[in-house]
Design a protein that fits this description.
Layout lengths: L5 H9 L20 E7 L3 H16 L4 E7 L4 H10 L6 E4 L2 H4 L7 H7 L7 H5 L2 E2 L2 E2 L2 E6 L1 E6 H7 L10 H15 L4 E4 L4 H10 L18 H15 L3 E4 L4 H5 L5 E5 L3 H6 L4 E4 L16 E7 L6 H11 L2 H6 L9 H6 L9 H8 L14 H16 L7 H10 L1
Parallel strand pairs: 1-2, 1-3, 8-9
Antiparallel strand pairs: 3-12, 4-5, 6-12, 7-10, 7-11
Helix pairs in contact: 1-3, 7-8, 17-18
Length: 408
């Protein structure tokens, strides 16, 4: 599998900027002789405070190791890149963009084998924390996508609520009825969707952006791919769906749209707002060879390949991905451990169930971002192409736009 390393390595080799927390090298020891582990996080404010409390818990139970939290916030990628370029990467760090950073990360397979560590995690998560069959990060949190729907709007329209066996034909029929009977939009989707996320609709319709070699032609512009784009555009043209400038959560929260597809991030805010909503699996494409598939937004925790104290770093990684820590983070991320999902009764909350169903049936799919070397550039171009297709002021021909996209 190709690695998207060119752009990031250029930054790594060229950077000369020294950042707080990643520019001063040390010998891996604290003043009192403990093994020092630097832990880089992308969180800020209250989230970072909660992380510090958990780090303190680890330090209190280890006489020989001291973990120092470095909360980089929005500068996370810049500082990690600078640290790798200077040979001064934190020992342990949060991670999501494995194709970009894998060259600076320690493969963790041998560590997991010693601790019989892997089986308690949902199998699909390893697809998103591995490169070329090697594990570079231990899953910490995730979300898939699912279909949210407003129960009150369905009741107002006098039609049955969505079910897990819905197809897109069912959704279109319901969305049209809702629009006609209530004046509200039946469905909303992003006018300029993140190309990383949108690939799940192609997967669900038996195609993808590219093949295993990264070839776009005949994949991104295949008949099946065009069908998925055309379906969304047709709903918009026919007036029972709206293409939103953001995620669709605003329209859903305000009661102006009955359905949209999104991750689990909105559950807490919808509950706090007192919305009468439900969540089901993403509808399947009629005639597809399998159930619907979701992209994953997955975070992991990784070890630097240049760490001087890898065994101590692994000890902290085990702690951070333990059942105890997985339980503590419930509410900010979905648990990744099967034992925690069971012990905490996660599946007894119906709003969470579809995200785990989608997780189970989305195994084995490799995002194009893990295959295509210049994914960053392609993603930017695709985003502009999608806007051409879905912007209500343009609504350009799907076939033409996708054919042009593979020709660039």
């Amino acid at each position: 599998m190709k690695k998207k390393m060119v752009g990031i390595l250029a930054v790594l080799m060229a950077t000369t900027v020294t950042f707080s927390g990643c520019g001063k090298k040390d010998d891996g020891k604290t003043a009192d002789g403990k093994t020092k582990i630097r832990f880089a996080s992308w969180d800020t404010a209250e989230d970072a405070d909660a992380q510090q409390t958990r780090v303190d818990k680890f330090n209190a139970t280890h006489d020989d190791i001291e973990v120092v939290l470095e909360a980089y916030g929005s500068e996370f990628d810049t500082k990690i890149a600078a640290g790798m370029g200077a040979g001064d990467t934190p020992d342990v760090m949060y991670m999501w963009n494995y194709p970009a950073y894998a060259a600076g990360l320690e493969p963790l397979d041998s560590y997991m084998e010693k601790d019989d560590y892997k089986d308690n995690f949902y199998e699909t998560l390893w697809d998103y924390n591995s490169i070329d069959g090697k594990v570079y990060g231990i899953p910490v949190g995730f979300t898939t996508h699912a279909l949210y729907y407003n129960k009150d709007i369905f009741a107002e329209a006098g039609i049955a609520e969505p079910t897990n066996d819905w197809t897109w034909d069912d959704l279109k029929k319901a969305a049209k009825t809702i629009t006609e009977k209530t004046g509200k939009k039946g469905f909303s989707f992003q006018m300029k969707p993140d190309p990383y996320d949108y690939e799940m609709y192609l997967w669900s319709n038996d195609t993808a952006y590219c093949d295993k070699e990264g070839k776009l032609k005949g994949n991104l512009n295949s008949d099946k791919a065009k069908e998925s784009f055309q379906m969304f555009q047709d709903m918009e043209k026919e007036g029972y769906a709206v293409a939103t400038e953001k995620t669709g959560t605003d329209e859903f929260t305000s009661g102006n749209t009955a359905m949209f597809v999104y991750g689990s991030w909105s559950i807490n805010s919808f509950n706090e707002a007192g919305l009468n909503y439900g969540v089901v699996d993403i509808p399947a494409f009629a005639g597809a060879s399998h159930d619907s598939v979701s992209i994953l937004s997955s975070s992991g925790i990784s070890m630097s390949s240049t760490s001087k104290n890898k065994e101590a770093a692994w000890e902290f990684i085990k702690f951070w991905t333990s059942e105890e820590m997985n339980i503590e983070r419930i509410g900010t991320e979905l648990p990744v451990l099967k034992s925690v999902v069971e012990s905490e009764g996660i599946m007894e909350s119906p709003e969470y169930v579809p995200f785990y169903t989608m997780l189970e049936q989305s195994s084995g799919y490799t995002p194009a971002s893990f295959i295509i070397e210049d994914w960053s550039e392609l993603s930017s171009n695709l985003s502009l192409s999608y806007e051409r297709v879905f912007n209500p002021s343009t609504l350009e021909d799907v076939s033409t736009v996708l054919d042009e996209s593979v020709a660039k």
